[in-house]
Amino acid sequence: MILLEDDKKINQLEVKQDKRRMKTKRKTEEHAAIGGVFDKFTLVNLNKILSKGIIKEFIGTISAGKEANVYFALGENNVPLAVKIYKIDPQNTKWMKNYIFGDPRFKKIGTSTHKIIYTWCKKEFKNLTQMKRHDIIVPTPILSRDNILIMEFIGEDNGTPAKRLKDIDELENPIKEMNFILDQISKMYLNAHLVHGDLSEFNILYYKEKQIIIDVSQAVSIYHINAPVYLQRDIKNVLNYFSKFIDSENVPSAEEVYKKILLNE
Ligand SMILES: Nc1ncnc2c1ncn2[C@@H]1O[C@H](COP(=O)(O)OP(=O)(O)OP(=O)(O)O)[C@@H](O)[C@H]1O
Ligand SMILES: [Mg+2]
Question: Which domain holds residue 90?
């Protein structure tokens, strides 16, 4: 085939681009996630965790999401564990950055997909630890390694996870439950100096008539520039959920709750 001068240029450019793409593809394949989760490095880490006996056996999947999968596993002495494995997916890092950059606890973390996801996972571990220390009811963190987070499993010993608040049809004392969560938000802000950032009935478990806050990876320091916006959003989500069970005159306004927290009343 005879190529015109311009066509040749385009062709050369395409070859160059293709070479670059293949190089990136090879790199991506190394990191490629099997089933969206287990890339080579995750498998190596899982092997280490298994060989140390921290996890004895994986039993099943609790949840498969966009960001992470959560598994039910058994640890030493058959202790039930929840193992959250974050997917190495560049799509997820775009919005994650908003909750990492600007949080004074995380500086110089790099910008590669791996670095962001590993930081995200470490952030969830740190947030759980910080919350637990200040009496916020969250699963006890056990270990974080790169994109793997191991924590206390909330549910039955046979692996049935606790229901989310979203899946509960009836609450015996909704006012008490609402006040409990508002108090947790307040403690989180005033004592742990954190804002959850994605608090709603989807990220609260309900087990043995107690609420347990989960999914705290995006929680930011109160010094993060968006902390006030996230705090107001959390309060609104929670009030909105409980207003389905409580007469409106017994539900405070979001502004009232927000001001009370800021004024430490
Ligand atoms: N410690 C735990 N014990 C029992 N179940 C858990 C625990 N942590 C998470 N789960 C279950 O896994 C689900 C997903 O967990 P989580 O909310 O932390 O992940 P996620 O970031 O929302 O994942 P995605 O948004 O990608 O679905 C929860 O809704 C809950 O059912
Ligand atoms: Mg969630």
Answer: 40-152
- Residue 139 CB less than 6 A away from ligand 1: yes
Which residue shows structure tokens 């994986």?
Answer: 58
Plot region of 153 (φ>0 → left; ψ -120 to 50 → alpha; else → beta)? beta
| pLDDT per position as a tens digit, 82-91 | 999 999 999 9
Structure tokens at 23: 């190089």
Q: Give the atom of ligand 1 at the shortest distance from the alpha carbon of 67.
A: 26
251 domain-assigned: yes
Q: Which ligand is nearest to the CA of 164?
A: 1
Asked whether 80 lines ligand 1 (CB < 6 A), one says no
Give this prediction's pTM: 0.87
Q: Determine, yes or no, domain membership for 180.
A: yes
With respect to residue 223, please indicate whether it lies within any of the assigned structural domains.
yes
Q: Which of 125, 152, 179 is the last residue of a domain?
A: 152
Q: Does residue 198 line the site of ligand 1, with CB under 6 A?
A: no
